[in-house]
Design goal:
Length: 116
């Protein structure tokens, strides 16, 4: 939520020499997860039953960071206590939807005879 304090701060910034609205380089801890993605992928690939808690302890990273790397960046999902890569692309999903609609139309046209 934008408050009067924020408005005043931005007015001071832009009335001076500040003309860019993009974020500038900040000091602080750099993201280390990009460097660790290949190492985590190697461990998950070698042991499909590895727990996120074990990865958390091994890499000394927060659970949320490990979860984000495994689920979002690597695309793995837990199936029957094993990590399985998510392999459905947008094309696969569209093909599945098309086939589902075709079957639905055939069922609507033929009723119970469609199943025979």
């Amino acid at each position: 939520m934008l408050t009067m304090q924020h408005v005043r701060t931005w007015c001071r910034e832009f009335s001076g020499c500040h003309v860019s609205v993009t974020d500038e380089q900040r000091s602080g801890r750099p993201s280390t997860s990009a460097d660790l993605v290949p190492a985590i992928e190697e461990i998950v690939h070698a042991n499909r039953r590895v727990l996120l808690k074990e990865l958390e302890e091994q890499f000394n990273l927060p659970y949320g960071t490990i979860w984000d790397i495994v689920h979002e960046r690597l695309g793995y999902r837990k199936v029957c206590s094993r990590w399985v890569p998510q392999q459905l692309t947008e094309g696969h999903k569209k093909n599945h939807m098309g086939a589902s609609f075709t079957h639905l139309h055939c069922f609507n046209d033929n009723g119970k005879d469609f199943l025979e």
